[in-house]
Amino acid sequence: MHISRVDLNLLVVFDAIYTQSGVTKAAETLNLTQPTISHALARLRDHVGDPLFVRQGQKLVPTPAAHKMISPVRRALQTIETTLADLEGFEPATARMTFKLGIHPLTENLLFSPLAERLQQTAPGIGLSSVLLDRRNIEADLAAGIFNVAVDIFLPLPETIMRRRMSGGRSVVVVRQDHPLAHRGMTLDDYLAQRHIIVSTRRQGLGPEDIALSRLGKSRTIALRCQQLGTAMDVVSRSDLVLTMSETFARRSNRLHGNSFLPLPFDVQEIEFYLYWHRNSDSDQANRWLRDQLVSAITEVPEG
């Protein structure tokens, strides 16, 4: 089959169906109708001589042929998109595109508010799409264009993946506004006497504060483990439970809660995040601009 017989838009549809596991969500992603997506899939099936997707319950599941196709197809589409963008030049004020960020829910809370505010003012035609980050596949996902950049802690990755350090800031103790310790400060003994909250998407495990305490021969009482920072901040505002968190994270999530912040009464390693992108995107103007915006957003500490 010669490439001249294939409409490249069919490959865009193929990528969307593979990502969304269905025609309906693929149509929403591409802003097309379901019949248009179904017709495109039928044409591509004729071209390759394979069904590509089979229905299992509510989802379309890729066939072995689709699994084999997806990585080279995504690389090709990304190359075409990057080439055209470079030829046109990148002007944030007039660009119309959507950046996909591989990110965890906790980091999304930190970055999206200031980033969306910046885009509204300087790049109103640019959108953001959050993609749940899977550390096991970060190299392949960046190479395939599943997301343009990723944000996570330090990860040992191959040379094809580039990184840039992003500081998450010092840690503070978050307490409700009228907590008994809110206005007199907190000693180490005070800290150990409290009941604590941990925010993590992991099923189990300790926080960096626990590691620091263990070096002092101390431990704290974990009363609540939750996945969302907003939930933790709300619980703090309604109870005597306390939360140890990056000051930047905490202040970003505190606007609706009015909690107070106390210095952490012992030393703990500063939280560090890293921005990751594929080497193929290193010189891409749009990707470089996005990276600069993300670094600026994470270092911006709101008041309150």
From TrEMBL:
<dbReference type="InterPro" id="IPR000847">
    <property type="entry name" value="LysR_HTH_N"/>
</dbReference>
<dbReference type="Pfam" id="PF00126">
    <property type="entry name" value="HTH_1"/>
</dbReference>
<feature type="domain" description="HTH lysR-type">
    <location>
        <begin position="6"/>
        <end position="63"/>
    </location>
</feature>
<keyword id="KW-0536">Nodulation</keyword>
<keyword id="KW-0805">Transcription regulation</keyword>
<dbReference type="GO" id="GO:0003677">
    <property type="term" value="F:DNA binding"/>
</dbReference>
<dbReference type="InterPro" id="IPR050389">
    <property type="entry name" value="LysR-type_TF"/>
</dbReference>
<keyword id="KW-0238">DNA-binding</keyword>
<dbReference type="InterPro" id="IPR037402">
    <property type="entry name" value="YidZ_PBP2"/>
</dbReference>
<dbReference type="InterPro" id="IPR036390">
    <property type="entry name" value="WH_DNA-bd_sf"/>
</dbReference>
<dbReference type="Pfam" id="PF03466">
    <property type="entry name" value="LysR_substrate"/>
</dbReference>
<dbReference type="InterPro" id="IPR005119">
    <property type="entry name" value="LysR_subst-bd"/>
</dbReference>
<comment type="similarity">
    <text>Belongs to the LysR transcriptional regulatory family.</text>
</comment>
<keyword id="KW-0804">Transcription</keyword>
<dbReference type="InterPro" id="IPR036388">
    <property type="entry name" value="WH-like_DNA-bd_sf"/>
</dbReference>
<protein>
    <submittedName>
        <fullName>LysR family transcriptional regulator</fullName>
    </submittedName>
</protein>
<dbReference type="GO" id="GO:0003700">
    <property type="term" value="F:DNA-binding transcription factor activity"/>
</dbReference>
